[in-house]
Design goal:
This protein is an alpha+beta fold. The protein has helices spanning 2-63, 68-73, 88-97; strands spanning 77-78, 81-82, 117-126, 130-132, 137-141, 152-160, 164-175, 182-183, 191-197, 214-217, 222-225, 229-230, 233-243, 246-253, 265-275, 278-287, 300-301, 310-311.
C-alpha cells in the first residue's frame, strides 16, 4: 500500500514538471518567433526604404540629362499652383513630353504593392541657399550689355561642418559684344583666394596653409560690382570655387533683374518615392544656364613656382 502511494506521488510530480517544461518551452518559442518576425519586418522596412531612396536617386539622375533651358521652360502650373506629377504614368508622360525616353515602371520591380508610387514636383525659386561642394564651381555668367548701372552681386558664404573653408573668386572680362567677343588675358589679380572663417583672425584648415589666403569673416558678405570693367574689358563672368570643404552659399542682386538674364533663379526638384509603404525622398537645386557649375580642372595651374598643385 505504501509503495503504491509513493508511485502516485512521483507520477503527479513528473506531470507537474512536464507541464512547467512545456509552458516554459512554449513561452521561449513564442518569444523567439515574435523576435524573428520583428527582425524580418525591420529587415523589410530597411530594404524597402533603401529601395525607395535608390529610385528617387535614379529619377534625379534622369532629370540631370534634361537640358537646363528645357527644364526651366516646362515647369507646369495648374490654377496658379505648381502641378505635381503624382504617379508613374504622369511622370512617364512628362518625361516623354520633354524628350526623355525612360521606363520609370521598371524602377519599381521590387515595389509591387498598392502602397508604392512616386510624387515629383518642380518649382522656380529665387536666391535659394545652396551647398557648394569641395572643388566645385558655381558661375555667374553675364551679358554685360544687359547689366544696369550700380548692379551689385552679394555673395554670403559659410563653412559647413568646418570652421574654415577656402573660396576662390575668379573674374573673367570680355569686350566686343554681342557679335565679336574677345576675352582679356588672365592676370593674377583676376583671382582672389579667401579663407571663409568663423572669425576674421584665424584660418584653421590644413588645405589652406600656405598663407596666401585672405581671411574673411563668414558674417561679412562679398559684394561684386557687376558693371566693373578692366583695361577696356567688361565683367563677363564671376566664378566661385570651394576649396578644402563645403560652403553654404546665399546670393542676391542689389535690384531684382538688374543683371538681365542672370537672375539667380533655380529649379527646386523634389522626388518622393514610396516602396511597399516605406517613403524616402531627394531634393536638388538646378541652376539656370547662366549659373551652371562645372569641373574646376582648368581653374588650376600645374606649376606656381612653389612646386605644388593648387588653384590660382
Amino acid at each position: 500500500m505504501n509503495n503504491c502511494s509513493k508511485n502516485k506521488g512521483y507520477s503527479g510530480q513528473a506531470m507537474v514538471i512536464a507541464l512547467v517544461v512545456i509552458v516554459v518551452s512554449v513561452i521561449i518559442g513564442m518569444s523567439i518567433m515574435a523576435r524573428s518576425l520583428r527582425d524580418k519586418k525591420s529587415s523589410n522596412t530597411e530594404r524597402y526604404s533603401t529601395e525607395a531612396l535608390e529610385i528617387s536617386d535614379s529619377v534625379i539622375d534622369i532629370f540631370s540629362t534634361v537640358d537646363t533651358e528645357t527644364l526651366f521652360d516646362n515647369i507646369e502650373y495648374e490654377g496658379g499652383e505648381i502641378k505635381r506629377l503624382e504617379n508613374i504614368s504622369q511622370l512617364q508622360d512628362y518625361l516623354k513630353k520633354i524628350g526623355v525616353e525612360s521606363d520609370i515602371s521598371s524602377l519599381f520591380k521590387n515595389c509591387s504593392d498598392d502602397n508604392s508610387g512616386i510624387v515629383v514636383s518642380m518649382n522656380k525659386v529665387d536666391s535659394e541657399p545652396l551647398e557648394l561642394l569641395e572643388s566645385n564651381t558655381f558661375g555667374y555668367r553675364l551679358n554685360p550689355l544687359q547689366v544696369q548701372d550700380q548692379c551689385t552681386l552679394t555673395i554670403k558664404a559659410e563653412p559647413t561642418a568646418a570652421s574654415s573653408v577656402g573660396l576662390i573668386l575668379h573674374k573673367i572680362y570680355g569686350k566686343g559684344y554681342p557679335s565679336s567677343i574677345e576675352y582679356k588675358n588672365y592676370d593674377f589679380d583676376d583671382v582672389v583666394a579667401y579663407c571663409i572663417s568663423d572669425d576674421s583672425t584665424t584660418c584653421k584648415n590644413s588645405s589652406l596653409a600656405d598663407g596666401a589666403w585672405i581671411i574673411f569673416d563668414k558674417a561679412t558678405p562679398l559684394k561684386i560690382n557687376l558693371k566693373e570693367s578692366k583695361d577696356g574689358y567688361m565683367l563677363d563672368e564671376v566664378r566661385i570655387t570651394a576649396i578644402g570643404g563645403v560652403l553654404g552659399i546665399e546670393n542676391s542682386l542689389s535690384v531684382a533683374g538688374c543683371a538681365g538674364d542672370m537672375d539667380l533663379k533655380m529649379v527646386k526638384l523634389s522626388v518622393m518615392t514610396t516602396c511597399n509603404g516605406e517613403s524616402r525622398g531627394k531634393e536638388v537645386l538646378v541652376p539656370n544656364s547662366n549659373n551652371l557649375s562645372y569641373s574646376t580642372l582648368f581653374d588650376y595651374v600645374f606649376y606656381n613656382n612653389q612646386g605644388f598643385f593648387q588653384p590660382y
